[in-house]
Amino acid sequence: MTLSQARGLFVTGTDTGVGKTVITAALAAALRAEGRNIGVWKPVQSGALLGSGITDAERLLQGSGINELPESVAPYTFEAPLTPLLAARAAHVELTLEALSASGLPLMARYDSLLIEGAGGIAVPLTNEALVIDWIAELGTPVLIVARSSLGTINHTLLTAAMLKQRGIPVVGVVLNDGFEEAIHDAEDPSTSTNAALIEQFGDGLRVLGRFPRIVEERPSPAKLADLIGRTIDLSPVRQALE
């Protein structure tokens, strides 16, 4: 199987820490509850080692309910809390787009389609020659943008969407996330009620699919995540992207 034969959706963020992992896990849980053979892939992650229980791959598996080895989901894991290029360099590993793509072939063979969680945003340095957006273009998958729902999100979201459009990469929509770790509480941030409409107004066809609520518990179950995202996000464009 080659990358061109795989179906998938790339989940990117407007920044690091905006909640890509919980949204990706929730999407996977909801789609699998519908009987779809959906897998998750976190090609490269940094900031902690597998076994710590706090890596994105481990959180993806716990939140989605998928029975996979974390090292299968995250073939490149680095301890240094740095951009992938520098985290790999600190571990004396040279990342290449070819190696990253090849690492996903076993998952592509086991699942009908994959939710691929990126690292940070699309302009993050990935290899010595490429940004994350360069790899998205090579994968040929559409993109879902995860953004915070609070003040500042309009600028970050429109810039991300414009860069993707410039490269001809289709965007299925935007999910606003109340759980962004540095978000101002809703009661103190009146922008949260208007940000979605303004993103669509100035986004040249960009759709906001919904607003995912803040989750208090640290490790919500797959059933809870599936229920939450099913009630707050329009999943139709995601389903279509994975057909």
Please outline the helices and strands.
Blueprint: E1 7-13, H1 20-33, E2 38-41, E3 44-46, H2 56-64, H3 70-73, E4 76-78, H4 84-90, H5 97-103, H6 105-110, E5 113-117, H7 132-139, E6 143-148, H8 153-166, E7 171-177, H9 195-202, E8 208-212, H10 222-232, H11 236-241
Parallel strand pairs: 1-5, 1-6, 2-5, 3-4, 6-7, 7-8
Subunit structure: Homodimer.
Binding site for Mg(2+): 21, 56, 117
Binding site for ATP: 17-22, 56, 117-120, 177-178, 213-215
Characterize the structure shown.
There is one protein chain. By secondary structure, the protein is an alpha/beta fold. It has a single domain, classed as Rossmann fold, CATH 3.40.50.300. The protein is 39% helix and 16% strand. The strands form two sheets. It has a six-stranded parallel sheet, with helices on both faces. A two-stranded parallel ribbon has the order 3-4. Strand 6, helix 8 and strand 7 form a beta-alpha-beta unit. Helix 1 packs parallel to helix 2 (56-64), helix 1 (20-33) crosses helix 10 (222-232) and helix 8 (153-166) runs parallel beside helix 9 (195-202). The model has no long low-confidence stretch (mean pLDDT 92). It is an enzyme of class 6 (ligase). Its cofactor is Mg(2+).
